[in-house]
Amino acid sequence: MNRNKDILKYCPNYYTIINFDFKDNDIVSDKLIKVYKSYIFSIDEKSEEDIKRVEELDNVLASYIKDYLFRSTLQKEIMTVKVKKDNNVLKNLVDIIIKIFTNYEEYTTRKIYISKWI
Known about the structure:
Structural class: mainly alpha
């Protein structure tokens, strides 16, 4: 149990994510939350890479809950993803989710120019 508390230090949005109230027919949200819970409690807490990935995943799923546009984008793109069946499918899936979020951020972020009025 102590291990779980240590891992939850890296997941400030944990309770917001697991208590997310989605529609009954929303299978994707249900699966994403299950992947989230499975992954964060399966990491090696001594690995900096795993901790960084958990923090990113926590941030991604918090954005998934808050941003409707990202939620619909992720739901569409996750259905077309092919995951390699090797020794760590869960890690590969988490990497894909993070990559989709990174692409979404780059696509939706745009430069805002402040115009001068004469």
